[in-house]
Amino acid sequence: MSRRASCAGEACFEHVARTWIGARAAAFGLVLALGGACRGEAPGEVPRAQGEDGHAELDTPSGEGAARAAAPEGAAIESISDDLVIQALVAEAEANSEVGALARHLAVDIGPRLTGSGALVDAEEWAVDTLASWGLEAERERWGELAVGFDRGPASGSVVRPREPLAGLEGAELAFVTDAWSPGTKGPVRGRAVRMPTTDAELRSRKPYLRGAWVLVGHDPERGGPAWPRGELGGRMLRSVEQGTIAGFVVAAGGPNDTLLHTHGDHDVEWGALPKGVTVRLRGDQHAALSAAVDAGDYVELEFDVDNHFIKGPLAQHNVVATLAGDPDSGRANQRVIIGGHLDSWDGASGAIDNATGVATAMEAARLISRACAATGQRPARSIQVMLWTGEEQGLLGSRAWVEQHPEALRDISAVLVHDGGTNYLSGIPVTPEMRAQMDAVFAPVLALERRRALVEGEAGEAMPFGVRTVESLIVEPSDSAPFIHADVPAFYWDQAGRSSYARYHHTQHDHFDAIIDRYQRRSALVVAIAAWGLANAEGMVERANAGPIPRRQLGVLLEDMVVTEVLADSVAGEAGLEVGARIVAVEGEAVTTVEALVAAVGVGEARKTLTVEGEGGSVELRVDWSQTEGERERARRREERARRFGGDGDRDE
């Protein structure tokens, strides 16, 4: 059932202070609502911007939000755009941003929001109520169900013996994580630490010590995961933990120098066949220290207490969908622009960077637009929707289901804008040549916003540039934009830049609220709001021609450390004469040392490339040709069409 705000539009402004934003706006009686007044509550506490040490600092009005009283010439809000709604939403954002309070509520007050957990339901209901309080039509929309849910309780681990600290460990406490949808210990469980046997002989020698033991499983750098014994021995050890013969496995989460813990898990379980046996993933450096002590002959005793709970289903799962209806007189109100991100998170931390940040910017953008529309009396020509998908971490379940369940709505979607890249500021957007002119116009106020910031802050401020860049096809990222792109809907995953390290926080134990950079979030929310408003009022919908993804160039080989271990049948590598055992060292004369570098090198430029490989006979050059593949034929067709339309070589790439 849809929920509407009890006070919205002009009525809300009877309860708030009025802020005039310049003579042009004042002539139209433009006023700004101060946050929370519509709901009869004080504005949420705005969090502190992250400093260089990774902790939050108060984002005082010394930046964009302050200097309006004494702004240098050319830095008035009117310099950003002559659109009154954009002026109003910028002024509201600078005077009263709520993006930090929104992220705080998700990451701190609610916390981790695993799909299938009670906390995610709390987040959905909060989002619906909050969006409705701003005048949007908001609801939880069912997309499917899970057979089994999961809630994670407290967990602790420690070294019980020896009592003195082990070399390489700071104290007795252990840093670890367990998979979602995995069993706990049902209370504290102590056991001797024993190395995983890797041969039958080792199994025989260690068997007297295995009963009730915590079995240490090392890290295999070649496989990039646990060093499980191969063959029947591995199966026997797994059965031992399932049967309760051993306490559980203590798996190295990485190599000896690794300190990150990544959370994941398999949601595809049935109530009648729940996983058995406890497996904890211990921080790589701590695991190395324990293993070294055991190898040295020390008696090491560990204790783990893991409070995990399965929830019997079926459990209905929902997306949050909220709509700011377009002007019915525009003739385009049935069309829509979608902004959003995924509401769910993994539960090994708080889900702040991934993805309270994206939820907060989408919601704040909706609030800014709603406030600005109420202040100016305007409405968007197209409807603007906020979509907060769930099940993203389990495979884009919510967004895929929405696309599959609403085929009739897809043709009326102009664009989908997804923020799922963390707290760094939105720095650009990739568009096709067909979209470029329209997108340049839509994002012109964003470029003006940065010019104005530079005038206000000078060299002391931190630049946050934005660029529209041209690509040959829409980029498919592993996020909620992907199902829309595959359904031929223009969907975009923002470029981001800044001082935050996404890899440090993505699915790790560090993904907490203090990692969010509030200054970046404020800018990103403004970018989303300006983009949504501009696209909603553009003369036409975003052009779809030639936007779909082009199949990537593939060599057709399997590699280990850049050495070919298998050549697939009917592959371009096989046709070129690439053989097992050869090491790929260069593409077009440029050295490549990683698979990522190899993929990047073969993916751009001409369809025929020279690979330099090294083998027993020395170094040779092989000519690889993708020109007759389906992807290259489509790429050539688009280039020809674009050359006729735009001139030049048809690429318009930047």
Automatic annotation (TrEMBL):
One GO location term (cellular component): extracellular region
Sequence ranges of Basic and acidic residues compositional bias: 630-654
Gene3D superfamilies associated with the record: 2.30.42.10, 3.50.30.30, Zn peptidases
Pfam families cross-referenced by the UniProt entry: PDZ_6, Peptidase_M28
Ranges of compositional bias, category Low complexity: 61-71
Location of this chain's protein in the cell: Endoplasmic reticulum; Golgi apparatus; Lysosome; Secreted
Stretches for region Disordered: 43-71, 622-654
Transmembrane segments: none
Top-level taxon of the source organism: Bacteria
Annotated GO MF terms: carboxypeptidase activity; metal ion binding; metallodipeptidase activity
Domain PDZ: 539-597
Any one biological process term the GO annotation gives: proteolysis
Residue ranges of coiled coil: none
SUPFAM superfamilies: PDZ domain-like, Zn-dependent exopeptidases
Alphabetical keyword list: Carboxypeptidase, Endoplasmic reticulum, Glycoprotein, Golgi apparatus, Hydrolase, Lysosome, Metal-binding, Metalloprotease, Protease, Secreted, Signal, Zinc, Zymogen
Keyword Ribonucleoprotein carried by entry: no
Subunit text: Homodimer. The monomeric form is inactive while the homodimer is active.
Protein's name in the database: Carboxypeptidase Q
Protein species of origin: Plesiocystis pacifica SIR-1
